[in-house]
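Can't paste images in this forum, so I'm doing it all in text. The chain is below; anyone willing to post the predicted structure tokens underneath?
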Amino acid sequence: MQKTYLFLIVFIFVSITGYSQNQKLKGQVVHADTKKPLSAAHILNLNSVTGTITNEKGVFELTSKANDTILVSFLGFSSIKLKVTNDLLKGNEVVISLIEKDEEVKEIVIKSTKLIGVLEVDVKQVPKDRFTRIHINGLPQTYEIGRPQKISSPIAKLLNPVDLVYNLFSKKPKQLKKLKKLKKEDDLRKMLAGKFDREVMMEYLEMDRQELNKLLSDCDYSEYFIKKASDLQMIEAVLNCYENYKALKKGKIEINRLPENRN
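Text version of the structure:
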């Protein structure tokens, strides 16, 4: 009889714990001025690294728990972060109003190369491509990277500023795990493939936009790539940079551990 009671107590405790950890946050995303629903807005739980998009009525549901942080974003609007409370998980729908950004239209200067129709002369007039095309796994397009920096030795490479991301992930493996999950999950990949604001990257790497751009530049990615790549491509690039430097550091450590030849 005592075993039965014990089983029931454990079952009830597990059920309550599971319920408290797997509740749905429900809400709607609307335009702050017009109050019209925003369809296909991105809703990302930064803690659990799960996400969804709003439907045609701007409505969403996302598994969350108290104290989770939710990032809400929509193209052309200022993003906001929402802290989940117990009240929000009791079935009360939250209405999230996003403010439209004032976009500046930048002047674009188009330069042309004058060609005269003589192949031998025209070839010399065409500027050489400063970038190299690369392919990122899982993506059909190819992308550009800048010319590799001239680093004279493996030791000099280890002193490169890219050590910052290696040290960051070494000290905070949870950040690395979250980025890898963003890269792996199909739903999250689709969401990030259409994002270009870098907010998720800056959140997980604890960097501002300038620091993030500097990191990618140190990883030999071109200015064109840094400006035009989607958030998914940026995550791929940072993870690839990290894996390359991890392999380089591992190789250096193994070389240092080799026994001396005493012959």
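The mean pLDDT is 75. The radius of gyration is 25 Å.
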